[in-house]
Amino acid sequence: METWSVEQVCSWLVEKNLGELVQRFQEEEVSGAALLALNDRMVQQLVKKIGHQAVLMDLIKKYKQNTQGLKSPENPKEAALVMQTEAARDNRDEETCSPVSHGEQMPSFYPSENLEDGLIDQRVLKQRRNVKHLLERSKALQWTKSYVLPEFPYDVKCTLAEQKCPDHSMRIRIIEFLQADMTKYLEGSLYPSTQQYNDVVNALLQAHPFLDEDGCGFAGVQ
């Protein structure tokens, strides 16, 4: 099959009840070598019907299995040698593809993997500081976007849904809950900035405009 021409491949398709594929194979000039080199993605692009795809792939697979079976050594020693050779080749391929090769070591976040004479690799410490800085920077960038209100407790949600002016204790609960949610953006600071405070208040009033009415306790807090 490796030496087949396009015409021979088309004749083989007809023999296997895949005559509908002949025109497509002629257009793409699929020879015997190209046929054996087809993978799943190529077959999907070449053949439209799923049924034909399955039959074609099965035929190619069976042909390869039969060919490999004919070429397999009968002598057990020869078979063992072939297996050892293939295993050695696979190991070389894995070493080539692996990012850790030729004595190089990938830096790790775990000190136990970078210990040398009891000292932690300074590169690991530097990486940790860089990661911490990036996380803090990410949080700071998140704040520049519109603030998203947290999910309030059930009683607070009921009060807001009914658009009732909250009493003093309910206002305190809302404020304390928002303050607790803001702590994840403060980056070590104990208090939010004026801009952060205004962003939170704006988000609250936009979601619940009735809180800006007189008597609700939130009017004029911006």
TrEMBL record:
UniProt-annotated stretches for the region Disordered: 89-112
One Pfam annotation reads: SAM_1
Start and end residues of each SAM domain: 4-51
Q: SUPFAM superfamilies of this UniProt entry?
A: SAM/Pointed domain (SSF47769)
Q: What is this protein called?
A: Sterile alpha motif domain containing 3
Gene this protein is translated from: SAMD3
